[in-house]
Amino acid sequence: MASPIVTMSFTEATQKRRTIRALEAKTTVPDSTIVKLAEAAILTVPSAFDNQSARLTVVFGNDHKKLWSITADALLARIGEERWNGGTKDRIANFANAYGTILFWDDQSCATAMKENAPDIYKDKTDEWVQQSNGMHQYYLWTALEALGLGVNLQHYNPLIDAQVQKTWGVPSNWKLKAQMVFGVPKDGSAPGEKQQKLPLEQRLLVFGAVNHPVPN
Ligand SMILES: Cc1cc2nc3c(=O)[nH]c(=O)nc-3n(C[C@H](O)[C@H](O)[C@H](O)COP(=O)(O)O)c2cc1C
Question: What's the superkingdom here (predicted)?
């Protein structure tokens, strides 16, 4: 079996995952490791009826810069100078100054085929399942990148940038952009603060029938 890309335990990795927006154009691992992670996500993350509708694009270096310059141009045209200069410009600069971005897409042809082929009782659920699988790809990669010592944040400038991104990188027109995951080495002093106060567990988790029995070795 191929050696694992991330060696941290699953629980540790999920506890380490946070949102970090102040990032440098540096990495802790070779680009090939990040590409391997993207491949592993594609090959291992589940989808409804094994429909495999999620698609990824990974951009590094000048392509990453280009993505954020496309986003900057589109936003400026949409919101105007005043709002652009009132904070948005700096926010986008933070992303542009990071190391790379993973773009998450859904292939609309796959989504349509799943709806057509699904039994009648599931037809109104398939769109939701396509989104759920995309979210699983996002969580997989967010957690894994942070376990590799990178800082990560998740952005949503779709659908504003879809057409220009598709044109620039020849991405099929039936792919629909869902999210942009920015990564890089966290800037000094950008460690995330205490986790926001979480709602009381009992409001969000109900457990029934659990038994405290010894687990066999
Ligand atoms: C579905 C989803 C959408 C999000 N969208 C954005 C976003 O557009 N921009 C952003 O900066 N953070 C976004 N976030 C990050 C959340 O704000 C962040 O995960 C949350 O506040 C908890 O903080 P933590 O990630 O440090 O645990 C998103 C997170 C999720 C799960």
Answer: Eukaryota
